[in-house]
Amino acid sequence: MAGRPADYSDVHILLVEGKRSDRDSFLTGLSKKNFQVETTSSGSAALKRLEKLLPDIIIVDAASLRSSGVRICAALHDFAPRIPLVLVLEEGVTINNSNNIDVVLNLPFTLQKLLNRLKPFLRQQAKHVKIAGPIHLDTLTRSVHCGEHQALLTPRLAALLELLMDKTGDVIERAALFSKVWETDYTGDTRTLDVHISWLRQAIEDDPRRPRYVKTVRGVGYRLDVQ
Fold first, then answer.
1. Same domain membership, residue 170 and residue 115
2. How many domains does the chain have?
3. Distances in Å between the alpha carbon of 164 and those of 32, 53, 107, 152, 211?
């Protein structure tokens, strides 16, 4: 019996590539495999995108950019050193890899070969991604995905969401949340917590004023509701 097809719908890839008429974009094949793929046409555009959201993997199609891709990869690695980098080069092109690039592939190659080279990173990602219903939190990069919403959280917001996800469905008292996230014994004024809850709702809710996931339990605290 054939194994169950892999589900890559929670994997976000940033694809840096130019337009080419001699071959299909990697976007086509990766999208058919159900990856969530976003494309940019230059390294500078990719860096701007990273300021708002950190993907799981970055693929730089240097062959389509008429470039070696080395400088682009170096800039991307400096900005987000934990994100795996895949560099695609023209046939016969070689580079001096300074260990910033995780995978180097020379054209031509099959989509399956690309997937095989990505799989180790996908297994690694699974270890540090928390899932609660539609909410996916990468605890290393602090990026969160919820439906159509994607955001890069501050360390404190990520800690707050992680704590709520660990106690999904349970009401956590405001003082307990504040004490754990802010690592303090003083819980006399938790208004800062309320502000951060508001920011968290803006990151994941369709309508932050009528939250579907992060619920307020009046007089007690907050609860994360997911199906």
1. no
2. 2
3. 34, 21, 45, 17, 14
Neighbours of 198 (CB within 10 A): 13
Residue from 153, 149, 133 nearest 196 by CA: 153
In this prediction, residue 186 carries a pLDDT of: 87
Whether 71 and 87 have beta carbons less than 8 Å apart is answered as no
133 with 113, same domain? no
Beta-bridged to residue 137, according to DSSP, are: 130, 144
List, run by run, the mean pLDDT of 10-residue segments along the chain (227 residues).
Answer: 60 89 83 92 93 89 91 92 92 80 93 92 80 88 86 94 95 95 89 96 96 96 92
Q: Which of 10, 127, 118 is nearest to 59 (CA)?
A: 118
pTM score, two decimals? 0.71
Between CA 227 and CA 169 the distance in angstroms is 9
Q: What is the CA radius of gyration of the chain?
A: 20
Contact indicator for 12, 150 with CB cutoff of 8 Å: yes
Is 6 inside a domain boundary?
A: no
Which range of residues forms the domain containing residue 21? 12-127
Half-sphere exposure of 30 (CA within 13 A, CB side): 22
158 and 200 inside one domain = yes
Asked if residues 62 and 68 have their Cβ atoms less than 8 Å apart, the reply is yes
Phi, psi of 177 (to 5 degrees): -60, -50
Type of residue found at 85: L
